[in-house]
Amino acid sequence: MKFSEMVAEFRATLPGTESFKRARRNCLGIITSHPDQAAAAFLIAGFCRSYVVLYEEEALDLDFAKRNHSLILEYMLILDEALSAHDVIKVHDALNKVVSEYSVGDGAF
């Protein structure tokens, strides 16, 4: 599976922890099978892991779950666009953008 396929699959899922678990598993596979996409996959896998660790046993408000699903998807799309350009500078810039946006976010995961 490539990063863009993982993004499309995640986009089609419901906003529960199971979708984050699956995305993380897919990212871990991407790290080993597509080294050029490893940094992006590693970053998203970490976000997904944190979300699951924090919220798997919680009864979450649907709006909260949707908001976080959309946020992770937004990060994925930023990275996917850069990866599809096959330009290491664009990928580097996208990684920095996602980390910067995450660092000023609400810290939900």
| Count of beta strands | 0
The radius of gyration computed from the alpha-carbon positions, rounded to a whole number of angstroms, is 13 Å
Uncertain runs with pLDDT below 50, 5 residues or more? none
| Average pLDDT for all residues | 96
Counting structural domains, the number is 1
Sketch the topology as an H/E string, one letter per element. HHHHH
Distance between the termini: 25 Å
Indicate the percent of residues in helices: over 70%
Protein structure class:
mainly alpha
Q: Biggest sheet, open or closed, and with what strands and sense?
A: none
Oligomer: single chain
Q: Helix segment count?
A: 5
Query: What's the shape?
Result: globular
**Relative strand content:** under 5%
Question: Can you put this structure into words, describing what you see?
Answer:
The protein is an all-alpha fold and 109 residues long. It has one domain. It is built from five helices and no strands. It is globular and about 40 Å long. The model has no long low-confidence stretch (mean pLDDT 96).
List keywords for this structure.
single chain; 109 residues; mainly alpha; 5 helices; 76% helix
